[in-house]
């Protein structure tokens, strides 16, 4: 009966999601979106028929396969990339780390040209973000500023590989080693990016990945914390699973063999280990249905990455003639980005504003997005936080006013790229909205 159901799902997919040609006149060209075939739906329904609801066989399969892809020992599934960031920072505050733990008032080097949930966990854990400026073109931290930002209170570096471009890992990893700092990579935009041939997300002690539909693969909502440190993985799982000390998988008991024979805090001797809490934790797990979609997406990851790179290359070739007015994206030489998007900064002397250009693109059904927060410190939630700025944020403010991006995701093909190139040609030729 299960096979009959799954065969019907395949037939349903063929009817419901039959491919259609892009119509440049009427269709919106999205900056991102889910790309899938029948296998995602088959996996999703297959998982639902088990009716396990929480994490089960697909979650275990996904965690193992993602860890294997990255060459790491641990992948811990969570409900979003933002939760992955929260867990990565929170894990480093664990008393189990002894003198290495992060404590309130410790400093974490980061950037303000960021998505808010890279910086929010620093603030939420009563740590002090230290902001440095970023380069234009690659939008990653200026390497020289990293060294200048280190103080006697600095304990960690936590930054994103912005829009798929790896930040200078030679500098960041070297600095972390010399000063005994934790290094966390926000790899949410950069699954499949490489630095000196090595995958990003594998340089720091911890990294985060997002599986939101705009990212390289999706399970709807979802994320992962990855690490090669088994002790850190145990702490991350504890914070994810209510803060409990027990590490049994769902539906299992007494994995450690000492469920009723240990002493914790001032609890009675032999208190049930399944209900001992060693951290102030959360519940940030995923369902097996989400993981089932992710397993099908993992099969397509290499193809998705190749398509993103090719779309980015073709778009850059098409827009190269406008570099006198636009700063086009670039990557440092050791970096091989798995591009999240195509990011553009309007030069101050261009003769038009970002809003002039993005309004024109949007009116022609080409979606645009700003580079996330622009300058996070200018947003109401972050204006009054306890922080430190090193060397000024001039480029970050320019990004806030002049930078945006358009899509290169795998759902974009030749007709979509032609429309983008043609629309830019019209604007650069002087056409404007009334």
In terms of topology, how is this protein built?
Layout: H1 2-16, H2 38-50, H3 57-70, E1 74-78, H4 81-91, E2 107-111, H5 116-124, E3 128-132, H6 143-149, E4 154-160, H7 169-179, E5 182-186, E6 194-195, E7 198-199, E8 206-210, E9 223-227, H8 230-240, H9 288-298, H10 301-319, E10 326-327, E11 335-336, E12 342-346, H11 354-363, E13 369-370, E14 388-389, H12 394-402, E15 403-406, H13 414-428
Parallel strand pairs: 2-3, 2-4, 3-14, 4-5, 5-8
Antiparallel strand pairs: 1-9, 6-7, 6-11, 8-9, 10-12, 12-15, 13-15
Over the alpha carbons, how many angstroms does the gyration radius reach?
23 Å
Sketch the major β-sheet.
8 strands, mixed
Strand residues, percent: 5-15%
Second CATH tier, the architecture of the largest domain? 3-Layer(aba) Sandwich
Q: Give helix % range.
A: 25-40%
CATH class of the largest domain: Alpha Beta
What is the string of SSEs from the N terminus onward?
HHHEHEHEHEHEEEEEHHHEEEHEEHEH
Distance N to C terminus = 61 Å
Number of E-type strands: 15
Fourth CATH level, the homologous superfamily of the largest domain: Type I PLP-dependent aspartate aminotransferase-like (Major domain)
Instruction: Give the overall shape.
Output: globular
The whole-number mean of residue pLDDT values reads 97
- Find the structural class using helix and strand composition: alpha/beta
Number of domain units: 2
The CATH topology label of the largest domain is Aspartate Aminotransferase, domain 2
Low-confidence stretches: none
Strand arrangement across the biggest beta sheet: 1-9-8-5-4-2-3-14
Total helix count? 13
């Amino acid at each position: 009966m299960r096979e009959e159901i799954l065969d019907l799902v395949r037939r349903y997919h063929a009817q419901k999601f039959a491919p259609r040609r892009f119509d440049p006149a009427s269709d919106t060209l999205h900056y991102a979106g889910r790309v899938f075939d029948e296998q995602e739906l088959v996996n999703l329904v297959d998982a639902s028929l088990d009716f396990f609801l929480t994490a089960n066989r697909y979650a275990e399969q996904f965690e193992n396969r993602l860890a294997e892809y990255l060459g790491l020992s641990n992948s811990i599934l969570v409900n979003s990339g933002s939760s992955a960031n929260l867990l990565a920072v929170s894990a480093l505050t664990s008393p189990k780390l002894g003198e290495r733990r992060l404590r309130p008032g410790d400093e974490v080097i980061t950037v303000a040209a960021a998505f808010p949930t890279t910086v929010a966990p620093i603030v939420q854990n009563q740590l002090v973000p230290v902001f440095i400026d970023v380069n234009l073109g690659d939008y990653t931290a200026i390497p020289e500023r990293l060294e200048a930002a280190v103080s006697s209170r600095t304990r960690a570096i936590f930054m994103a590989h912005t829009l798929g471009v790896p930040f200078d890992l030679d500098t960041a990893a070297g600095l972390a080693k010399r000063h005994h700092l934790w290094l966390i990579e926000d790899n949410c935009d950069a699954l499949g990016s490489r630095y000196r041939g090595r995958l990003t997300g594998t340089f720091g002690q911890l990294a985060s990945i997002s599986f939101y539909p705009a990212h390289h693969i999706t399970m709807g909502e979802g994320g992962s914390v990855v690490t090669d440190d088994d002790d850190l993985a145990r702490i991350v799982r504890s914070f994810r699973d209510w803060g409990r000390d027990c590490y049994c998988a769902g539906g299992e008991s007494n994995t450690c063999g000492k469920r009723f024979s240990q002493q914790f805090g001032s609890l009675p001797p032999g208190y049930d280990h399944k209900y001992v809490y060693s951290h102030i934790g959360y519940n940030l797990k995923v369902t097996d249905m989400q993981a089932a979609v992710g397993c099908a997406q993992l099969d397509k990851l290499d193809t998705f990455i190749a398509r993103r790179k090719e779309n980015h290359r073709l778009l850059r070739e098409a827009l190269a003639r406008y570099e006198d007015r636009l700063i086009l994206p670039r990557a440092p030489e050791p970096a091989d980005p798995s591009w999240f998007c195509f990011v553009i900064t309007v030069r101050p002397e261009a003769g038009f504003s970002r809003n002039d250009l993005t309004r024109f693109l949007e009116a022609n059904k080409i979606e645009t997005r700003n580079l996330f927060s622009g300058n996070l410190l200018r947003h109401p939630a972050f204006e009054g936080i306890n922080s430190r700025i090193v060397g000024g944020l001039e480029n970050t403010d320019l990004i806030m006013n002049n930078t945006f991006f358009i899509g290169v995701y795998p759902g974009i093909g030749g007709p979509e790229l032609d429309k983008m190139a043609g629309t830019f040609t019209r604007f650069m030729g002087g056409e404007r909205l009334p």
